[in-house]
């Protein structure tokens, strides 16, 4: 029986980024030991929860071999829609003339709007054959413009939304046995997406299309249908994240979700997803988001300017993509 040789070069290639970021966390912790506390961990988990859900949506897109730049602005639009439907009846700036609604209504509306945006992206990419980068960039602008118009309408006039019902904000800021409820949403979504990708025919077809779309088509897989489904699932994830972000912060405006799509892509790549498609896992994405948020929170915690977060994230993305492309070239 042939045993696999221990190859330090492969280990460094596969896990170098993790080693670097773990080292950064250790340095941050040594500079401020209070960083390793339950309160800090709880804050990081709460801040990471919506980003995990956004990254899970991005995971569908990357595995299928495509790209999506509309995620962040979709989060912003759905946060405003969910927030506008979750206001108290006696709030002095009432967005819609509606009675108080149960929390399932704003969440459902946000998911539905996200789903529609995803379907528009999918149709533009798979049917109109517009490159995914340009198609999703175009819809990102449409979504952002729509959100600005919506927020600017009377009586809101571009003011941040507020006055949300308690049973809605509890979903984002409440806790069960000391664990934030929003964390349960994120973990639940992780389980659902993991099962869908690894235990269903749809999941296998998404991986097949991402690995080789032409071969998948020849083998009888409806590539158009798979691309539409992946974009729709991604949009639904963005919608849920938008609703929960509004619930977590107790507010919403047109700037919500700005840059979330880049953080999601970066987290997926750090978590082992390939920009060439056909590779990715839920656990990798989960770890990628957590690591990014630990570093972001940690840099702020030790008093370093938040501007450095952009420098660090940019370097991490460059390193992660270069490692991924080296793997792709060697495999090819």
Notes on the structure:
With 332 residues, this protein is mainly α. It has a single domain (33-331), classed as ABC transporter involved in vitamin B12 uptake, BtuC. The protein has 13 helices and 2 strands. It has helices spanning 8-31, 38-63, 71-85, 104-126, 132-152, 166-173, 181-199, 201-211, 213-218, 223-249, 260-270, 282-301, 307-331, and strands spanning 175-176, 179-180. Strands 1-2 form a two-stranded antiparallel ribbon. β1 (175-176) and β2 (179-180) form a beta hairpin. α2 crosses α12, α3 packs across α10 and α8 crosses α10. The longest helix is centred in the C-terminal third of the chain and has 27 residues, at 223-249. It is globular, with a radius of gyration of 20 Å. The protein starts with 7 loop residues before the first helix and ends with a helix.
Major sheet characteristics: 2 strands, antiparallel
Structural class: mainly alpha
| Mean residue pLDDT | 89
Query: What name does CATH use for the topology?
Result: ABC transporter involved in vitamin B12 uptake, BtuC
The 3D shape can be described as globular
Low-confidence blocks of residues: 1-5
SS element count, helices:
13
Q: Largest sheet, order of strands side by side?
A: 1-2
Overall strand count: 2
Instruction: Report the β-strand fraction as a percent range.
Output: under 5%
Q: In sequence order, what are the helices and strands, one letter per element? A: HHHHHHEEHHHHHHH
Q: For the record, give the distance between the C-alpha atoms at the N and C termini, rounded to a whole number.
A: 27 Å
Overall radius of gyration: 20 Å
Q: CATH first level: which class?
A: Mainly Alpha
């Amino acid at each position: 029986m042939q045993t696999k040789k221990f190859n330090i070069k492969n280990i460094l290639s596969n896990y170098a980024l993790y080693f670097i970021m773990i080292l950064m966390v250790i340095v941050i912790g040594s500079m401020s030991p209070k960083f390793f506390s339950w309160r800090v961990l709880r804050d990081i988990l709460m801040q990471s929860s919506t980003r995990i859900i956004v990254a899970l949506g991005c995971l569908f897109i990357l595995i299928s071999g495509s790209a999506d730049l509309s995620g962040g602005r979709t989060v912003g639009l759905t946060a405003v829609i969910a927030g506008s439907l979750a206001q108290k009846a006696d709030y002095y700036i009432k967005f819609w003339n509606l009675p108080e609604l149960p929390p399932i209504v704003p969440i459902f509306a946000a998911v539905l709007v996200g789903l529609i945006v995803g379907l528009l992206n999918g149709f533009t990419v798979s049917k109109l054959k517009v490159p995914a980068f340009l198609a999703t960039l175009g819809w990102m602008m449409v979504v952002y413009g729509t959100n600005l118009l919506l927020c600017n309408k009377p009586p809101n006039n571009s003011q941040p939304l507020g006055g949300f019902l308690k049973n809605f904000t509890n979903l984002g800021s409440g806790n069960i046995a000391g664990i934030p409820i929003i964390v349960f949403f994120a973990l639940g979504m992780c389980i659902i997406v993991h099962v869908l990708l690894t235990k269903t025919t749809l999941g296998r077809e998404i991986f097949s299309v991402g690995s080789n779309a032409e071969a998948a088509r020849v083998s009888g897989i409806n590539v158009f249908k798979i691309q539409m489904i992946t974009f729709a699932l991604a949009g639904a994830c963005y919608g849920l994240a938008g609703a929960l972000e509004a619930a977590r912060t107790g507010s919403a405006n047109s700037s919500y979700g700005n840059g979330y799509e880049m953080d999601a892509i970066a987290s997926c790549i750090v978590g082992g997803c390939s920009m060439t498609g056909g590779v990715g896992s839920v656990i990798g994405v989960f770890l990628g988001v957590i690591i990014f948020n630990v570093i972001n929170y940690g840099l702020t915690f030790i008093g370093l300017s938040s501007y450095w977060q952009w420098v660090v994230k940019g370097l991490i993305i460059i390193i992660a993509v270069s490692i991924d492309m080296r793997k792709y070239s060697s495999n090819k």
